[in-house]
Amino acid sequence: MSRFASIDLSRLPAPDAVEPLDFETILAARKAALRVRLDAAGLLPDWNPDSESDPLVKLLEEASYRELLLRQRINDGVRAVMLATATGATLDVLAANFSTSRQIVEAGDPKAVPPRPPVYETDARLRSRVQLAFEALSTAGPEGAYVYHALNADPRVSDVAVTSPQPGHVILTILSSEGDGTPSSSLLSTVAASMKGRFGDGVRPFTDCLQVRAGTKLEYSVEAALDLYDGPDSEVVRAASEASVTAFTRVQRRLGEPVTLDGLYKALRVDGVRKVHLSKPSADLEPGETGWAQCTSIRVVRQGGGHGG
Question: Is the model's pLDDT at 81 over the cut of 80?
């Protein structure tokens, strides 16, 4: 979420400690082990492990299923202690090791009819703050520390850019998770207030002149026509393409993040799409370091008839 290099946890491969599981593999291994033991004891020489009605096979199937559940529980336990894979309350406990807690986005109302439960920040956002926790330990005002404290200031902070146009002058650019991303004056004030403090106990280093401001919005729309392969599910393909490009525009809604034509083409070309005709935008969008690209509308239509595969 910040401009400095941080690890994208979602792209990490599954750790070696998490083993792939397959019931049939476990069952086959148990059958083979039992066959060896029976032969060694001179028992049941005519036993057929492929007979699904055999009582021993039924026992092995039950035991194999229990082993599968046990191994799955071990896999879950391994994932629970890793920041990249922990979720829910387990992630909350892991985050507490870094003095970071899940933020409340909306307090909810237990007296409402029906009652409204509180809304908390997502696992992904909490993970990103935990990644920045060690940055906050520095007293020299590094970029990561400013990002960490800005995200902690309010759960409405979606992204932060830290720039320094001149020595001792730091600008925090804020992107909001609400509306079109433009932060309200109250949100900017909240972030600014969180940085203040008496000498020695504030977030902002004593020698930094700090400014908190909104970024620059670059609006754009997406219009595309699709050539599809022959098939009865043309509307399903069109809808899938539209959903894919919608997800892409949401991911790119970050400060300093460009929206490229090749990225749009890749998002639009789902299974069943033969060719994409993209009319808007006509060029890559570069919002700049303190700006963001805001998609205002998406229109994806089918063009012409189908084509053979």
Answer: yes
